[in-house]
UniProtKB/TrEMBL annotation:
The chain crosses the membrane at residues 21-43, 84-103, 110-129, 167-189, 210-232, 252-279. InterPro entries: MetI-like, MetI-like_sf, UgpAE/MalFG_permease. It holds the Pfam family BPD_transp_1. The lineage of its organism: Bacteria, Bacillati, Bacillota, Bacilli, Bacillales. GO terms for biological process: transmembrane transport. Belongs to the binding-protein-dependent transport system permease family. It is found in: Cell membrane. The keyword Iron-sulfur does not apply. This is Lactose ABC transporter permease. The keyword Repressor does not apply. GO terms for cellular component: plasma membrane. It comes from Paenibacillus nasutitermitis. Residues 77-279 form the ABC transmembrane type-1 domain. It is a multi-pass membrane protein.
């Protein structure tokens, strides 16, 4: 009988599956079951008894109460969305510019890279909470230069006034939340061939033209990756008011579970809008070049 020879592609697939297996087992054991169990609790009134937990089926009651009978979620989530819409492009643009600067051949660039990545190591929930509680999260230039009054005059009674002030007041947090994005952009920048820049310089292209026609198009996949990461990071960071709302209902397990799943779906919808907006901009840019 002839022996069957396993192809190289099959071996590579098996090798990749083996590397994924620990994560998959951990996901099934520690994340999948709690997720499904929280979904189950969202349809029940959960009571903790001395010897057991009692589940009384209530259907969609909690979902209806949160979405249609109370404004607590809307009062929090609308200003938070406005703040996120401002912070996301600021973080992406800042991270991209820093990655381009840190990619330059300068003395001590490894030290600067480490400094920008340090907040990722230390920005745990407790450390970041203490950092802001001690008054270190604000630069204070709104009050120092009376910029708040200019914003009030320029924006008037707009609902965007407060979110813009919040972002400017906590701009240090924008720097803290840019570490991973800078590393991703830095890795993406290093994938661009040096010959492309040499050819552009020989053709007489200016640095501005090089950025728009070589650097930015080549970084497009990394921009999308950072957009997704930034959205998820902002929606789960310690000062997210919705997380406080979820944690405030002590003992109301069913209600909190319903709130968590509503918030999860909101994140999915918001993330989908961001990705679709990015894809549309990319297509328009590609069509304009043609």
């Amino acid at each position: 009988m002839k022996k069957r020879i396993v192809s190289g592609k099959t071996l590579r697939n098996l090798e990749g599956s083996l590397f994924m297996l620990p994560w998959l087992l951990g996901f099934l054991a520690f994340l999948a079951f709690p997720l499904l169990f929280s979904l189950y609790m969202s349809f029940h009134n959960v009571k903790v008894l001395p010897k057991q937990m009692k589940y009384d089926y209530v259907g969609l009651q909690y979902f209806k109460s949160i979405l249609f009978e109370s404004s607590a979620l809307y009062d929090i989530i609308i200003p938070f969305f406005q703040e996120a819409i401002i912070m996301i492009p600021v973080i992406i643009v800042f991270s991209l510019l820093m990655a381009i600067l840190l990619n330059q051949k300068l003395r001590g660039r490894m030290l600067f890279r480490a400094i920008f990545f340090l907040p990722v190591i230390f920005s745990t929930g407790y450390v970041l909470t203490e950092f802001v509680n001690q008054g270190e999260g604000s630069l204070g230039f709104l009050e120092r230069y009376e910029l708040a009054n200019y914003l009030d005059t320029f924006l008037g009674d707009s609902s965007w006034t407060t979110p813009i002030k919040q972002v400017l007041n906590r701009f240090v947090l924008v720097l803290w939340f840019s570490g991973v994005q800078i590393i991703i952009f830095l890795g993406g920048r290093q994938t661009i061939s040096a010959s492309a820049y040499e050819s552009a310089r020989i053709d007489g292209a200016s640095p501005w033209e090089v950025f728009w026609k070589i650097t930015l198009p080549a970084m497009a996949p990394f921009i999308l990756l950072n957009l997704i990461y930034t959205v998820v990071d902002l929606f789960t960071y310690p000062f997210n008011p919705i997380m406080d709302l979820i944690g405030s209902g002590q003992g109301a397990y069913g209600y909190n579970s319903a709130l968590v799943w509503i918030y999860f779906m909101i994140i999915i919808v918001f993330l989908s809008i961001v990705v679709l907006f990015y894809i549309k901009l990319s297509r328009n840019r590609t069509g304009a070049r043609r």
